[in-house]
Amino acid sequence: MLLSGLLLPGPLQTPYPSLPPISAASLRPRAATLRRAGGGGGGGGTVPRRRLEVRALDAAQPFDHESRASDLLERRSKLKIAIIGFGNFGQFLAQTFARQGHTLLAHSRSDYSDAAHSLGVSFFRDPHDLCEEHPDVVLLATSILSTDAVLHSLPIQRLRRNTLFVDVLSVKEFPKNLFLQVLPPDFDILCTHPMFGPESGKDSWTGLPFVYEKVRIGDANGRAERCQRFLDIFEREGCRMVEMSCTDHDENAAEIQFLTHTVGRILAKLDLKPTPINTKGYETLLNLVENTCSDSFELYNGLFMYNKNSTELLDRLDAAFDSLKKELFANLHDILRKQLFESAQSSLERASN
Ligand code: NAP
What we know:
Blueprint: H1 24-37, H2 65-76, E1 80-84, H3 88-99, E2 103-107, H4 113-119, E3 122-123, H5 127-131, E4 137-140, H6 147-153, E5 164-167, H7 173-182, E6 188-194, E7 209-216, H8 223-236, E8 240-243, H9 246-269, H10 280-293, H11 297-305, H12 308-352
Parallel strand pairs: 1-2, 1-4, 2-3, 4-5, 5-6, 7-8
Antiparallel strand pairs: 6-7
The chain binds NADP nicotinamide-adenine-dinucleotide phosphate.
Keywords: Oxidoreductase
GO molecular function: arogenate dehydrogenase (NADP+) activity; prephenate dehydrogenase (NAD+) activity; prephenate dehydrogenase (NADP+) activity
Domain Prephenate/arogenate dehydrogenase: 79-353
């Protein structure tokens, strides 16, 4: 440990920051000299006895070896990420990526230069220019329905040979198969689904689920490490990291996500309004409408069209609603029938008396 910032009494103190730091080893003989000069052993000499003491530790200086090493480590942990599809969700992710110090590039069908500028993101109208920047990661945040066309329109031949491709689509089997078909074998593939959005994740991502499958990550040249650095972004925010196959994700997501969005959109059709006697349950319904309808209809449509489990879920929802209605009407019929027959019986009895 260097003692360059020790405040040393008297002649040992060095006021010149440019001088090389003084090591503990180099101080030892001088301290011994001082002890002797101070009459060590209580001999009553004329030079007053002065003790070496640590009064302040220095802050790391940019020229320190440790400081340079930690800078290098910090730089190495940062990624150059290109976001393709800079709409609602792309911009939401960019805020956190930028806060964590990653270099961000973006491209979208619409011109988001101003929004990008305010987030510290370099916006490229032409995807050729973006690809020539050789990002470490290309992240697709396009609508599910447009992903195929967008991926085919990218000049991937301009990228580095082993770029990592990531998607954040809310369905997973579809982008996995698409990437495997379209991307050259040298490209790495990570399929992810951050299961939260600009509404549910606006304050914090702590505890929110992040699902991923490492579909294809090569062994060579730190490719596994690059993938881990990308995952670390979400881990650092406190997400609940769930490694799961794309197939299992879609099975689960039909129930969790498509069902939630469908119920929210059915309720939205009722045009529910707050009342002076709102219950907690009713407020939950109002929130559900707000949360689900703030996402685009295109997103919801994508959940239906690109998850084969969604059709079955709609059928089950239909059947459940029918069965519930049957139960209610059967009860109602029982009561009406009872009333009808009982009143007919009592009229007969009254007539015979
Ligand atoms: P979205 O409506 O699903 O997608 C909007 C994005 O798709 C915009 O960047 C838009 O580009 C692009 N796009 C739409 N049609 C296009 C076309 N024909 N050609 C090129 N680009 C097109 O809304 P989103 O909420 O931003 O979601 C983006 C992705 O993130 C989706 O795959 C979604 O499943 C996923 N995701 C969303 C959430 C969420 O809470 N919102 C959560 C997790 C995952 P322009 O804006 O430039 O037109």
